Amino acid sequence: MRLSEKVSIITGGGSGMGRTASLMFAAEGAKVVVADFSEEGGEETVRLVREAGGEATFVRTDISSEADAKAMVDHAVATYGRVDTLYNNAGIMPEEDHSVIDTPVDAWDRVMAVNARGVYLGCKHAIPQMLEQGSGSIVNVASFVAILGCSVPQDAYTASKGAVLALTRSLAVQFAGRGVRSNAISPGPIETPLLMDWLLKDEAAKQLRLARNPTGRFGKPEEIVHVAIYLASDESRWTNGANFVIDGGITVNYF
């Protein structure tokens, strides 16, 4: 198995792509720490992992809280003895996030707290443990919207993911020489409950987004997680500072 005996923290592991990641990482042999704000969702993910024969534990985490981020890493170390992968998957995309001219300040701050500060805090507390071990992999989920502009903007989300990309590059330069690699994944629109619930209410928005994708469909969560597994595995030991754009071709499509 590609992740045998590796300990992986997956933020936002209680639902959506995080739950898929937890199941797939465990199937590859990882010991998974499911970190999520929802106790119900997190415990359900752990149950599903264990039912499938994997190993997982849950820690309730508000990733925007430094105390919770530290407790998340401490829980992993106390339970499994180390941290090999921090998969910064948790993110929010509130409906009121539009252009800068009409996005409420509190919505902007909420998005930044989870999507940008959450990545910073997770790294702040996981990287020292990885440096002590002499190895580790940071996997940050950014977004294709951090690379190109959008005529139907979600500016707080876009800015937060741009911050994730910039931070990933800085981490890659700082810590690779001491065994800790940092990489990003920038997905296109993925069929998660968060996105689908919104688009099912707005058929025009759904068709607008599908029209821009050469594949004619949204991505599947597992199609992103396969890349994360590669980055968590020893197969990627010389992969550092990369941004994997997995979007079906949206970012190369001009018409």
What are the main properties of this structure?
seven-stranded parallel sheet; 255 residues; alpha/beta; 7 strands; 8 helices; globular; Rossmann fold
Task: Characterize the structure shown.
By secondary structure, the protein is of the alpha/beta class. It has a single domain (7-191, 222-243), classed as NAD(P)-binding Rossmann-like Domain (Rossmann fold), CATH 3.40.50.720. 47% of the residues lie in helices and 15% in strands. It contains eight helices and seven strands. It has helices at residues 16-27, 39-51, 66-80, 105-133, 155-175, 193-200, 203-211, 221-232; strands at 7-11, 31-36, 55-60, 85-88, 136-141, 180-187, 243-246. It has a seven-stranded parallel sheet, sandwiched between helices. Helix 5 links the parallel strand 5 and strand 6 (180-187). Helix 1 runs parallel beside helix 2 (39-51), helix 1 (16-27) packs across helix 8 (221-232) and helix 3 (66-80) packs parallel to helix 4 (105-133). The longest helix is centred in the middle third of the chain and has 29 residues, at 105-133. It is globular and about 50 Å long. The model has no long low-confidence stretch (mean pLDDT 95).
